[in-house]
Amino acid sequence: MKSVSKTEKTRQFIIETTAGIFNEKGYAGTSLSDLTHATKLTKGSIYGNFENKHEVALAAFDFNWNYIKQQIAEKKAACSSSREKILVYANAYHKGGIFTLLKGGCPLLNTAVEADDTNDELRKKAADGFLSWKMDLETIITEGISAGEFKSDTPIEKIALTVIALVEGSILLGKATKSRNNADLILSSIHDMVGLIEIKK
Length: 201
Hints:
The protein is an all-alpha fold and 201 residues long. The chain contains nine helices and no strands. Helix 5 (82-93) packs antiparallel against helix 7. Helix content is 76%, strand content 0%. The chain has one domain (6-197): Orthogonal Bundle (Tetracycline Repressor, domain 2).
């Protein structure tokens, strides 16, 4: 078993402790004092493990996104159909779903909104996340067509992108209006859309 050095442990501690702060406050809104207050470490300790705040932010994004991917993967592994796998994404955002456990909500949405014109490296990380999500959905839909669950003329890319847009739109509107009902109404549209591409048996 590979041993973990003190430096690696400290780096991981800083990442895990500050990930929620970056996700909630954003890169620009998170100050060095936020990091030192949360970790109880000095500025020198933090910058002794990371070159700067930007490097901490990148690592925090990866931590948050990997957390979500792991939660999604576990939920999908328990599914017996392509339909159920697609709906994992919708159900995860419903009240009591996966992402209510992650402080600040979806890191892809938060990062994309903040970093589109201000931090190209973070923007690219968010873009890569969206593209990997799209590819995963396209794979699920393709498998569903092959298994006879979905119609052969299903517009694969369009459905995948629409699922992402509905999920992220539900989060944005829900947060802006402080209404879970608004978010859940949008998420229910994913169920409706999946119903339209299903082959009724």
